[in-house]
Amino acid sequence: MTTRGRLVVLGAGGHGKVLVSAAQEEGWHVIGVLDDDPSLKGQDVLGTEIMGGVDLLGRLEFDAAVIGVGANRARQAFAGRIRTRWTTVIHPSAVVHPDAVVGVGTVIFAGAIVQPGSVIGDHVILNTGASVDHDCRVGSFAHVAPGCALAGHVTVGEGAFVGIGSTAIPGAVIGAWATVGAGASVVQPVEDGMTVVGVPAHPVYRT
Questions:
Q1: CB within 8 A of 59, min separation 6: which ones?
Q2: CA 95 to chain centre
Q3: Which residues are catalytic?
Q4: Which CATH superfamily is domain 90-196 in?
Q5: Rounded-to-integer distance, Cα 165 and Cα 163, Å
Q6: I need a labelling partner for 25 at 20 to 30 A (CA). Which of 17, 58, 93, 172 fits?
Q7: What pTM did the predictor assign?
């Protein structure tokens, strides 16, 4: 397998572990994982050393970095304060149509599908088995959880979290920093900052 280059992953939690796996499968040489939890230094993630805190990034020789943090606000904060060469990571089993646009720092995990005409923002997570149909718009820092199904022309706002196994009908709009609960079915617009649950999805909380 041809090596894509030397990659550093920021974050040693569960999401970081899956990201290291996907990057290795895609052909990256993951040279290290950085995490600000000092108790993790010297441990490893799938054979890759946790080298220390994120401040080490400026002292390493690498080709690209990617954020392995599942929390959307935390990922946004990292991207805002760290200037480096971000890259996308796409698991080889994911299907991304050549017509789709995928932003920098985005990760697309095993079995995910992105259909033509869709635009995925920066530092997005499209998790395992997520399906994004034609002409969708997924804003930066959003997280589409495992097994989600977005029909055509769905809009997911910046930083929104679309919970595991949820669905959205054609043309649905999920606002910025909104949360869609696990297994919910979005059939009406979800306002910015709103949390919705159920089938059909209904609001329970707004920030």
A1: none
A2: 15
A3: 134
A4: Hexapeptide repeat proteins (2.160.10.10)
A5: 6
A6: 58
A7: 0.95
